[in-house]
């Protein structure tokens, strides 16, 4: 490994062992470089890399600190990648959501509290009274966030929150263009809650898989139709 890689690994080990804790300030550059046995240039490159992934926070004129290491902070790198996606990768995002949300639903079926179940049921009731697709999608986002929180895994919740917020446009599009999409969403949410309340993990996971797959399959079909239309236009111009 290069000296920079060695420095990154060493700082990581210091955090893992608790020698450096969230909020701690790193020793001065010269001192830390001597402790780690790396050059100042290599240490600087290591710090830049760790700053980029939000492990370190460089405060000009003050020093370098370990961040809170909160999952939401560490997942911001993933958020950036998701935010700059193109439509061709949107289907892949739904595929990831389908797998992770099914797992979250299975976990929720084994540990969901009455408070959470009541909150989910309240979301469904509010969904029935919505006047616009935008409002329904907003409640849909809250529904999935609340359900994922039951798993008690902040990284899972963070990843799903990022993916969910980046697929809003497709969900609104489906709600506006596909007949019965709104009623189907509400019915599927109700069925998922019933499975979670009944403690049936496999059923909850299967229902969530079908729920996400519904949008995923619709999106694939919409993309295919758009491709066919574009091809037809191209053939027409060729004629």
Task: Summarize the structure in words.
There is one protein chain. This protein is mainly α. The protein folds into 2 domains: 3-68, Arc Repressor Mutant, subunit A (Orthogonal Bundle); 74-238, Up-down Bundle (Four Helix Bundle (Hemerythrin (Met), subunit A)). Helices cover 74% and strands 3% of the residues. The chain contains 12 helices and 2 strands. It has helices spanning 3-16, 29-36, 40-52, 71-74, 76-83, 90-111, 114-128, 133-149, 154-165, 168-177, 181-197, 201-238, and strands at residues 56-59, 63-66. It has a two-stranded antiparallel ribbon with strand order 1-2. Helix 6 packs antiparallel against helix 9 (154-165), helix 8 runs antiparallel to helix 9 and helix 11 runs antiparallel to helix 12. The longest helix is centred in the C-terminal third of the chain and has 38 residues, at 201-238. It is elongated, with a radius of gyration of 23 Å. The chain starts with a helix and ends with a helix. The model is unreliable at 78-84 (pLDDT under 50). Residues 1-69 form the HTH gntR-type domain. Keywords: DNA-binding, Transcription, Transcription regulation. Pfam families: FCD, GntR. InterPro entries: GntR_C, TF_FadR/GntR_C, Tscrpt_reg_HTH_GntR, WH-like_DNA-bd_sf, WH_DNA-bd_sf. It comes from Microbacterium koreense.
